[in-house]
Amino acid sequence: MAESKDVSLEGWSSDDGLLFHWDVQDTLFRHDLLLDVRHGQSYPYSNLYVFLTYRFPNGKSRLDTVECTLADERGDWRGSGFGDLVDQRFLLQSGIQFPLRGRYGLEVRHGMRHDPIPGLANMGVRLEAHQGALHP
Q: What domains can be seen in the chain, in order of their start residue?
């Protein structure tokens, strides 16, 4: 599963959460969960804080905060890009097994002090097969 959503380069409001969904049938299969960030060269910060709300098929949810480091100590972007845009990928969870069958969700909101935050173009979530053993 890979899905991405555009946000306005002029400013992404923390009120505008991005919701991603996927279905799980095999609770033994291991996955890697990744966050894709696309930003402009003019993004004014070296990092991005995001609030992640995981939603489970049984109606429960879990909140997590993640810092995405976008630039190194010298201010150079860590990702790769074409033109004005830079793409970066962050591993959120490695080798996870989803405990329940059904529809899962992940809501992504930015957690930066400046709101709305300018310079972000796109956010995406990717669920991939974990490299290594498929089952425990």
A: 2-129 (2.60.120.260)
Per-residue pLDDT of the chain (136 residues; tens, 9 = 90+): 999 999 998 999 999 999 999 999 999 999 999 999 999 999 999 999 999 999 999 999 999 999 999 999 999 999 998 889 999 999 999 999 999 999 999 999 999 999 999 999 999 999 999 987 455 5
| Sheet of 47-55, strands arranged across | 18-24, 102-110, 47-55, 61-69
